[in-house]
Amino acid sequence: MATEPSSQFVAYRPAPALRPFLAGYVGYREVGIPPGRHRGLPSPYLTMIVTLDEPLVMAAHPDPATPPGRYDTLVGGLHTAPALVEHDGRQSGVQLALSPLGARALLGLPAGELTNTDLDAGTLLGPLARELHERIRAAPTWAERFAVLDRLLLRRLDVETRPRDELMWAWRRLLATGGGVSMSELAGEVGWSSRYLSRCFGMEIGLSPKRAARVVRFDRARRLLQRRAGAGRAGGLAEVAATTGYYDQAHLDRDFRAFAGCPPSRWLAEEFRLADEFQDVEEFPAVDELSTSDEFPTVEEFQAFDGSSGR
Prior knowledge:
Strand order of the largest sheet: 1-2-9-4-7-10
Domain HTH araC/xylS-type: 165-270
Strand content: 15-25%
Structural class: alpha+beta
InterPro entries: AraC_XylS_family_regulators, DUF6597, Homeodomain-like_sf, HTH_AraC
GO molecular function: DNA-binding transcription factor activity; sequence-specific DNA binding
Largest sheet: 6 strands, antiparallel
Radius of gyration: 19 Å
Distance between the termini: 54 Å
Pfam families: DUF6597, HTH_18
Protein name: AraC-like DNA-binding protein
């Protein structure tokens, strides 16, 4: 008897102590849907996936030298090329969005060591990865699965391990401006030379400030396209380009081809079913929901505030 198609997507915010390091959880379970291929696009978050019913099938990684594989748990660093995920009509798991500023505290190393890399989570987390997988699979509800994640990640969290304040500030400034601040501005604001900032930022985050700004802007544009498609307003590429800081539609199209491997119209056609399902679920915090550049504190204010937050 054919399986009745069904899809579930459930978003959840982590425990408060985890939120500076982890943007959110999304649980997903789809059965009986047409087999397909999904593009995992570059974003300002590292990705961690803990599967439920079947392994994650990676048909292609951002690093083309990495062979296709199947994973029960996976950690992926920031990347600038799409990953390709295949499924046979069933897929399920929980996806975590990790801030690159939280890589040291949760994974034990800077995000810069994971750029364009996908790994079995056990490589970084050791036995905790298997425990996560087993306990999440055994939990009967989404609420209990998210509670398991909170408990185990809080056990792992090392709040004393963090990047330098100047780098934390520069990264958050990029997010707050939607990638609209230049490296020279950032360097002036933190009091470093552009060369020193670029080197330190790349080693910690994994991308240069200029490339990170492009990823942040691209992520903002693709989320807006997804939301418009979910609301039945597909198209309007020129408007999306103008809203998200691109010079024009051609500029947006070039970044889409570079980061997604296809133009935005093709991505929308391929992903529209997911966009439709996600219309009532905020996948992870959008960068344009953060403070504007005018509201962003100075480096000194940021350091004073962040130091008083108990992190």
